[in-house]
Amino acid sequence: MFRQSVARLAVRHQSTVSKAAPRALSNAYVAKLESRWTTLPKEDQTTLIDELKSRMELPWQELTPAEKKAAYYISFGEWGPRKPLHGPGDKAFVVYSVTAGIVLSIVLFWGTRQLGAPSPHTLDRQWQEASDEYLKSKNANPFTGYSQIQ
To answer: What is d(CA 69, CA 51) in angstroms, rounded to the nearest whole number?
Structure first.
C-alpha cells in the first residue's frame, strides 16, 4: 500500500520538463529575459531554470541563440546574490554628501572661532619673545630645568 502511494506521488510530481526537453523553447519564452527576470514569479523562474537545464543536457549546438543567452544570464547575470548593491547615482550621492560634510565642518569651525573668546595675551609674539629672553637669562634647559650657575 505504501509503495503504491509513493509510486502515485512520483508519477504525479514527475516533471513535464523531461517530456519537453528535446523540443526547443520558444523565443518569446526566453527572449529579453534580462529585462523581465526580476518580475517573473518564483515558480516561473524555477520552471524556466529546470527547462533550460534539461535543454543544456543535449549537445549545445542544438540550443538556439536565445536559449544560450538565457542560460548565460541565469548562470552569470546580475540577479540574486550577484545583484549590484549600489544603484545608479549612488556614487554622486556619496561624493556630494562627503563634500557637504566637509564644508559644514569648516563653517562650524569658523563660526565657533568667531563666536569664541579672543586668544589669551600670553600667545602674542611679544610675550613669547620676552618669555624666551627670560629663560635664557636664567640658563633654563628644557631637560634639566634652571641652571644653578649664574
So the answer is: 14
Q: 127 - beta bridge partners? A: none
Residue 35: pLDDT over 90: no
Cβ atoms within 10 Å of 17's Cβ, excluding its own: 16
- For residue 78, what are the contacts with CB-CB under 8 A and spacing of at least 6? 84
Higher pLDDT, 78 or 124: 124
Count of beta carbons in the 10 Å neighbourhood of residue 25: 20
Average pLDDT over residues 83-109: 92
Scanning the chain, the segments in alpha helix (DSSP H) are 2-12, 17-20, 27-30, 33-36, 42-56, 65-76, 90-115, 125-137
Quote the CA–CA distance of 128 and 4 in Å, as a whole number: 103
Name the grid cell of 125. Answer: 609674539
The residues spanned by each domain of the chain are 13-82, 90-116+123-146
Residues in the chain: 150
Say how many Å lie between the first and final Cα of the chain, rounded: 117
CB 44 within 8 A of CB 7: no
